Amino acid sequence: MIAARPRFRVPVGRAARAVMAACSLVLLASCGSLGGGGGSSTVSYDELKGSLGRAYDSLNQAIESGTFDRVPSLCAGLSAELDRAETAAKSWGILEREKMNLALATARHGLQDVSRTAPASGDPELLRDQLRPVGEAVRQALDLLDQAAAATKSPS
Questions:
Q1: Cα angle at 29 between 23 and 35, to 5 degrees?
Q2: The pTM of the whole model exceeds 0.90
Q3: CB 94 within 8 Å of CB 64
């Protein structure tokens, strides 16, 4: 006869699972505040916001003025600023970092469309339509940078 190991199972009902999930989310949210990811951040959020906003405004101005030959290089410049924002967000809490990553992915996807279409198209209306989601994503990233700047300035 083979000796069987006893298995001890704790019955966990749906309500208990829901409570455990809620507690996990609360702990996750409380541990991951905007400025409290890990280590001190040397990023100047105000400077990053300014450079990101200027890069987007330059791209928008090039489309509005019809200088489509400049659009691919301006897209590359805005993409570099998005990379800087992504680097700054690495020290944030998980929820804020994922919001930023989603906004940055949306902006990058739109930038690829604009960069591909601009030299061949010459249609400012099409480019404005393609740039619209990029602008919304950049505004969301700027809002998140505002929150991060406020979180680092206020004593907790």
A1: 155
A2: no
A3: no
pLDDT of residue 109: 95
Q: Is the dihedral of CA 91, 96, 98, 104 positive or negative?
A: negative
Reduced to 3 states (helix: H, G, I; strand: E, B; else coil), residue 70 is helix
**Which CATH code fits 41-153?**
1.20.120.660
Instruction: Yes or no: say if 52 and 141 are a contact pair by the CB < 8 Å rule.
Output: yes
User: In this structure, what token pair is assigned to residue 137?
Assistant: 């994503």
* Window from 25-29, 34-38, 64-68 with minimum mean pLDDT: 34-38
List the one residue out of 151, 21, 11, 18 whose CA is nearest residue 92.
151
Q: Could you give the CA distance from residue 129 to residue 122 in angstroms, rounded to a whole number?
A: 13
